[in-house]
DNA sequence: GACGCGTGGGT
DNA sequence: TACCCAAGCGT
């Protein structure tokens, strides 16, 4: 694979025109107030696969609760997870806290300044490492995200599939050759800003683009055809029966395993089923609640259906109201919680749709 | 290299 | 509606 820029590409002019535009047009974002490495770090983790407008309120709350590496390192995992509730990709915040503890203990609370060291931190991959090093420390490292791959695909008419890891490596080599002396952080941010505000996935605003003159795809009229991106598989359907087991104004909840999907979050107990008859579902719920949680229940009525789609799964949930009959020896992951106290627990969004059904009861 | 991992907004 | 997309990382 070739990692060299086309001869006719004017590196200096491109960087200058892009930076002039960025200096004049950049958005006021809360993580751009200063270049504190911890603030940059938290923002980059939150922004992974997540939109700016979604992140803003979470960022403000998170920085208020955990303003320093030390504060995050010393916080309880429940408090940290609660502050992330609703943002998605929860392993991000578990890794972030583990890394904060690592920075506190091993680096005296100072975020490392070399690619080798910072890459050892949990949750810090090639993009995040480059972003922190360039923005906080002005190191000439590339920070290649989806925006940058789209911009460069068009700018240089690259037809490589950006879904493949090898393409990111290639674009990192190319970006490295364009980063201007002394302004690595702004340059990387400018590329992303351009991708977000001008060089959008669909209907790019080429007529107002500050680097229109440098763009090969635009010159050839193929900007709408790029980048080349492989198609994702559709989510796999899963059928689930949800049991709302009520006992004196309390409802049973269960903590998910510490690994895998929605790790460590609370949920109402669920049973996976094939699509079957109503009677079979009732029977299965009764049997499974007994086997897994040691409680005898009487399934009352079906009080609702909820559908929730993940990137790779589609949960089709049918919700059953159940009476607790007997059984006090719950496994350590399960408990009965008063309805008013449910807000103290972290639930996935899929279960937020179930919660209102309890209040109606 | 392929897959698992959330959620919300846009067209 | 049914897609697509969004400042990726770990395994």
Question: How would you characterize the overall build of this protein?
Answer:
The protein has helices at 11-25, 37-47, 52-65, 69-74, 77-84, 91-106, 115-118, 126-137, 146-155, 165-176, 184-197, 216-220, 278-293, 349-352, 355-360; strands at 236-247, 250-255, 266-267, 270-273, 296-309, 313-326, 334-338. The chain is an alpha+beta fold. It folds into two domains: 11-225, Orthogonal Bundle (Endonuclease III, domain 1); 236-360, Nucleoside Triphosphate Pyrophosphohydrolase, CATH 3.90.79. It is elongated and about 75 Å long. The termini are far apart. 32% of the residues are buried. The structure holds a DNA duplex (11 and 11 nucleotides).
The biggest beta sheet reads: 7 strands, mixed
Sheet/helix structural class: alpha+beta
Number of contiguous helices:
15
**What proportion of the residues is helical, as a percent range?**
40-55%
What is the second-level CATH architecture of the largest domain?
Answer: Orthogonal Bundle
Please tell me the total number of domains.
Answer: 2
CATH-derived topology of the largest domain:
Endonuclease III, domain 1
The gyration radius over C-alpha positions equals 25 Å
CATH homolog superfamily of the largest domain: Hypothetical protein, domain 2
Distance between the termini: 63 Å
Compute the average pLDDT: 92
Q: How many strands? A: 7
- The SSE string, one letter per element, is HHHHHHHHHHHHEEEEHEEEHH
Keywords: 4Fe-4S, DNA damage, DNA repair, DNA-binding, Glycosidase, Hydrolase, Iron, Iron-sulfur, Metal-binding
Pfam families: EndIII_4Fe-2S, HHH, HhH-GPD, NUDIX_4
Organism: Brevibacillus invocatus
Catalytic activity: Hydrolyzes free adenine bases from 7,8-dihydro-8-oxoguanine:adenine mismatched double-stranded DNA, leaving an apurinic site
